Structure formats: C-alpha cells, structure tokens
TrEMBL record:
The keyword Cell inner membrane does not apply. Residues 132-225 form the CAAX prenyl protease 2/Lysostaphin resistance protein A-like domain. This is CAAX amino protease. Pfam families: Rce1-like (PF02517). Keywords: Hydrolase, Membrane, Protease, Transmembrane, Transmembrane helix. The chain crosses the membrane at residues 20-43, 49-69, 90-112, 132-155, 167-184, 190-209.
Amino acid sequence: MKSTHIIRYGAQKLLQIIKWIGFLFIYLVASGTLDVAGSYIALSQLQKVLGISLLMIATTLGFIGWRYGRQLTLSNPRRFGRLPFTLKRVGQLIIIFAIILAVQSTWGWLVIHHYLDLPANQQAVNEAITRLPLWNNLFAVFLAPIFEELICRGIFMNYFFNRDTRLNNWLAILASGLVFGFLHDMNFDVNWLMYSALGSLLAYTYMHFRDIRYSIALHMMNNLISII
C-alpha cells in the first residue's frame, strides 16, 4: 500500500510538472509573437501580425487565469482569494516595494560601474521595445507581470507546495524565487541571484497577503521602474 501511494504521488507530481511547463510554454509562445510582429516593417503586415499576436496573448492570458482560478477552487488550503485593500496592507506593500527598489538600485549601480554585465534578458527586452515601443512597453509593464505571477507564484506554489505549514511556505517562497531567476537568467551568476531575490520578494508578497493581485501590482511597479 505504501509503495502504491508513493507511485501515485510521483505520477501526480510528474503530471503537475508537465502541466506547469505547458503553461510556461504557451506563455512564451504568445509573448514571442510580439517579437515576430516587431520584425515586420511594412505597416499593412505589421497590423495583421500584431492583431494575431494580441489575440493570442489575450486568449493565453484568459486560459491561464481561468486555470489558476480553477486550481484554487479544487484545492486552496491557504485560502488565497481577493482581500480588500486597507491602509495597513498598502503600507506593507510600500515597505516591500522599498526593499525591491533597494535591490534594483544596487543592481543598477553594479551594472553602470561595470561590475556586472547587463542581463541578457534585459538586453532582449530593450531591443524588443526599440522595435515595437508602444506594445512591448505595455506588455512589459502590464501583461508580463500578470502572466509571470500566475505561472511562477500562483500555479507553481499551489501545485508543488500546497500544504499550509511554515516550513512549506518558506520553501515555496525560496523555490519560486529560484525558478523565477532561472527563467530570466540561466547562467547561475550574480544576475541570476538578483533575479532570484526579486522573485523571492514577489513570492513572499503573494504568500503574505494571500492575494495574487498584490504581487502583480508589485511586479508591475518593478517593471515600470526597470524601463524608465
């Protein structure tokens, strides 16, 4: 009986890993369509490809958002949901944002003074914005944070760290941060650590407030600072 339980548990986790990779894959495909649109110079072609791209992005976002909500309906031991905004919560969010600003400022100083190279991910974002400034800026500030919080915080943490214990919650925050770092920088260097630190702060925000809108808002503010 014990071996059967282990097999079932392993099969369940394997299926969850495959599903999570699937969500990540369709997000990358949908966001990649903006890069395709940016490569079209002729206005008539650009409008057509851009329209298809925006439709794919909207459809993908709707599907992932629905899947996250469905996941919480099936199993939600931490009682994630929609909590009212209060002055206390807003104050706490501002404190976390100040910590993120400190990390970003330190990171920027290291890059400016050539102690670190500009992350390849940021270079790619900058190049995409140059080709298609309006839509890539809007995507980076508003849509990418929603996608990444749903996938890297909501679905990831609920799939693999679904028990509401102190140890499990801290492991979820750490793992989510490391995965977030890996998705933005695969070199396992200081830039990866910086991305992982930001991811962990966003994961802490999600876990602390038990409402993904808070980590999404924080992520949006962080991305806005990054492109200004």
